[in-house]
């Protein structure tokens, strides 16, 4: 048993925080297994601070617990906890139910889930987050991620890969991992476009969906719509066959889903936006008046669809039905789409005196205020995934007056605090936009790190 360390006559401390053996080894605080240490409260370490009142003790933060052998269950629990605190769809509570049966037979999915769980664990004080050692959760997270990439490459050689739900869910977890570690967001976009979308295309929308695949498809829709509209890409979800599948699935549900229809509008706007920008080079030539008019009319039709959704949403709101966080997200996206569509036409001179979905000068401010109101509600009161606010906040920032900009950066801080480092990229983008506009937020420091 470790002997208690003696206090010398000239030592003004009334207690010490380590035994003689630990002092000889130059260990600042005894190891948790040291009996001299654990005689105190096992959940806390008491240290003496000079200058405090005689005999006073300060309870410090609990020491992180070392990762035990066989920590698969622990990291699985942290993965599930992350899913529970980041709702992508209304039935998100069933995600764990769909994923757990796939784990025993899929080394790829197990590694991807372990990577996300270990990364989430590394950001909590109850688990050792020392990045330096191979037993740290942070090290384990990246090791599992590397293993999952290798396992995915092996899975891609399977002729029946398009039928494997475990591979689809694995790409979801890999994308989630990227959103948590890669500020650029490029890794997530790559997994969504080159991974998940390709697998769904191979299977096709005509195949009978398992319960697991149907749940996955609902999650995929909201993330893929976000990716497509942020990056200005087309998406398989805009293809007639996939739109028909969504219509069939929506007919099987009861009641009106505001977010389901909003996702369809996001897909419509992203598809139109991609064609819009493909047409811009042709507008530099002569005799393009007909094309300018056609793009203006089509933009107005898209805008009318957004307004029609908003009118329907307001009727639902006025009916006294409970307005949940998903409804707030849908409303935030509605105001975002109107700004996004207007911005596209504002950037070019061709529609300054022609019919188009450009908003009057007094309208953007109201849309920005609405986006911020709904975003604050989501961040402060709900478990809706904060990463879904990236698109609304990015677009709101392009039209935000100087008094609203610090508020937007604060909301992006909230997204970052929930584990999504991609929020830093959006802050940097907006600061560049505001710098070009001559009003960079003075003294705002983006140099933060998350663990």
From TrEMBL:
InterPro entries: Osmoadaptation_assoc
Top-level taxon of origin: Eukaryota
Descriptive protein name: Fungal-specific transcription factor domain-containing protein
Native organism taxonomy: Eukaryota, Fungi, Dikarya, Ascomycota, Pezizomycotina
């Amino acid at each position: 048993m470790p002997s208690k360390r003696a206090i010398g006559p000239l030592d003004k401390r009334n207690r010490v925080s380590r035994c003689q053996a630990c002092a000889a080894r130059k260990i600042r605080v005894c190891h948790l297994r040291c009996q001299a240490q654990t005689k105190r409260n096992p959940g806390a370490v008491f240290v003496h601070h000079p200058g405090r009142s005689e005999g006073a003790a300060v309870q410090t933060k609990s020491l992180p617990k070392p990762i035990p052998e066989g920590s698969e269950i622990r990291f699985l629990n942290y993965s599930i906890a992350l899913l529970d605190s980041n709702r992508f769809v209304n039935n998100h509570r069933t995600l764990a139910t769909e994923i757990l049966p796939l784990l025993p037979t899929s080394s790829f999915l197990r590694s991807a889930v372990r990577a996300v769980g270990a990364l989430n664990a590394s950001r909590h004080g109850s688990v050792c987050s020392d990045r330096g050692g191979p037993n740290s959760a942070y090290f384990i997270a990246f090791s599992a991620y590397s293993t999952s990439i290798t396992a995915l490459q092996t899975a891609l050689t399977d002729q029946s890969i398009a039928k494997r739900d475990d591979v689809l869910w694995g790409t979801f977890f890999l994308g989630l991992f990227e959103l948590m570690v890669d500020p650029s967001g490029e890794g997530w976009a790559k997994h969504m476009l080159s991974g998940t979308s390709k697998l769904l295309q191979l299977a096709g929308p005509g195949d009978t969906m398992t319960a697991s695949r149907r749940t996955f498809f609902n999650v995929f829709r909201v993330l893929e719509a976000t990716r497509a509209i942020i990056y200005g890409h087309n998406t398989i979800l805009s293809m007639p066959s996939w739109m028909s599948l969504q219509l069939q699935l929506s007919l099987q549900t009861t009641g009106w889903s505001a977010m389901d229809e909003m996702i369809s509008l996001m897909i419509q706007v992203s598809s139109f936006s991609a064609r819009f920008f493909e047409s811009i080079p042709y507008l530099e030539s002569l005799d393009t008046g007909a094309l300018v008019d056609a793009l203006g009319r089509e933009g107005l039709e898209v805008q009318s669809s957004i307004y029609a959704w908003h009118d329907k949403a307001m009727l639902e709101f006025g009916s006294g039905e409970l307005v949940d966080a998903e409804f707030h997200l849908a409303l935030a996206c509605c105001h975002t789409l109107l700004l996004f569509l207007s911005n596209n036409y504002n950037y070019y001179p061709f529609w300054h005196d022609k019919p188009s979905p450009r908003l009057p000068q007094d309208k953007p401010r109201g849309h920005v205020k609405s986006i911020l109101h709904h975003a604050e509600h989501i961040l402060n009161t709900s478990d809706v995934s904060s990463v879904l606010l990236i698109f609304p906040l990015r677009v709101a920032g392009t039209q935000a007056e100087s008094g609203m900009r610090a508020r937007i950066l604060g909301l992006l801080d909230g997204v970052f605090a929930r584990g999504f480092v991609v929020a830093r990229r959006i802050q940097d983008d907006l600061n560049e936009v505001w710098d070009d506009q001559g009003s960079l937020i003075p003294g705002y420091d983006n140099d933060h790190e998350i663990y």
